Here is the input.
Amino acid sequence: MDTAPFLIELESPDPGVTRLTLSGDFDYTTSGDLAALTPTFMNSGLRVLEIDLSGVTFIDSSGLATLIHLYHAAEEHPAEMRFVGMTPYIAHLFEVTALDLVFNLPTSAT
Amino acid sequence: MESVTHAPSTEVLRAIVEAAADGVVLCDADGAVVLVNHAATEMVPGDVTAVLDRSREPGETYQTAVGDRLLRVRREIFGIVHQAWYLRDVTAEAARADALRAERERTQFLVEAGRRLSASLNTRRCARATAELAAGLLADVAMVVLPPGGMRRTSWLRSSEAGLEEGEIPVASADQVPGLAEALAGFPPVPSRWLDPSQAPDWLLPDGFGPVGHLLVTPLPGNGVPAGALVLARREGGKGYDDETETLVRVFAARAGAAISAAVLYQQQSTTNAILAGDLLPPPLPVVDGLELAGSLRAAQQTALIGGDFYDVLPTSEGPLVTLGDVCGKGPRAAVLAGQVRHSLRALLLLERDPEKLMRLINRALLGSPTPSSHVTLVLAAIRPADGVIDLAVAGHPAPLLLRADGTVEEVDARGSLLGAIKSGMIVLRTATIELAPGDLLLLYSDGITEAFGGTTGREMYGASRLKTALATCAGLPAGAVVERLEQLNSDWLAGGVFDDRALLAIRRSR
Here is the structure.
């Protein structure tokens, strides 16, 4: 099976807002990349963390664990974490794991 | 001015021949020696005619040994009737050529050793290669004694004309071979001349080997720990171990030791993995009156990536509790976590049988775990075989599918939170109670099934709807056949591609 390369784009559309755009396969082999990057954007100025998953083709339990870890890190920071991009596949995955009740999701995709 | 040309006198010619660095022997037409110069007398102190091979044609060159010298001799026609034999001492030249050849042989040996030793990560095969390589160039018999590793007995492999032999010795017997106990402890080797070959015990040698003339014992250095020892022996009358050979043996031993210790480490690692994976093997399913149970667990292909799918059927007095789950991550950590969840369930079941309460207990236990990311998805099904009633709780896991006897497929309306994930401890569970009529079947599965990538592009997920369609074709089949068919269809979809763990468990009410 060919795997889609996992990419992380980091941008700051507004002061205090950091947007993470993830794409590709977010799994056991790639989730460490995001975990390693977390300290660089969890800085003192961070108020809102936006996560765009609309380009993510696959998430496994390790990818999910990284998102949960990010959620806890934002909560502790404190910063608001919200998802701004979604696919039906990921929305379904969040529903199965009941993370849709925990995460702040865009209303349109769910 | 008058110019007169004189032929050089015989005395002048004699003086020139005497002064030549090459040996010169001059014979007349009858073959009688008429002149032997000083250099020739130096090279051949006795009868000079002994080195003259008269069968040789003029212009021909040959080599002959005189005492410990090696001479190169050339026959030539000299003047009209005389024959000359030119002699050159090539002892040093030949020694240099021998040294070069020996050096080449050593290099080739090490290249071959590197090639054979790197070909395997199996301890026995590495030890075998070491013994066989050494028995060629370095010894008449070569024995590799493997590291005891804290055991009382240790194994050896031996190569000689008798072929490859293997055996074991008590570690204490190493003391019988001079230098072996020290080598096994990793001490540097002592020169061969310090070891008394007559002390070599019988077990060191193949039957009928005869007396040992030379013994060399070298440690096989591993990654910080000794990887065993190499014992080399040559027969009495054979060539001794000179400095060059001892150096070569040490270089060879370093390579062999590295290969063997890598193999030992690899095997320890794979044994650990096999033990951990073994704990995830599906248990034999119990026989329950009124039910058919069938399961299939296909572990991910890479052994280093042991996945975390598991299932169990745990009997209680009221009927079995069926569990199927998936822990976060891969590798030994996932295997340990899966084991913990299975054992926790087994213990909790002694006090509590209600799926929802069990879920909450497991969630709290996982949140209390010091291991980060102890996330688990789980389905618990408490079955009353007498009337087919099943209490179901689903946490972070795909909902089970229900296949009715008439071929209708329903998704059980139950869902719930991933366990061990959200620190606040909040979990939401919507449980379900279903009733299996005779012939109905409940299918529990892991996301490895629905998220199997394959199809024509190799990039398409199998998905829940394909699984439902496949299940609908299984009406009337016994539980074992249903699991086998679904597993087959899913494997066809994968078409040999890489897959995650895939678990299937079917419960069918037989009457």
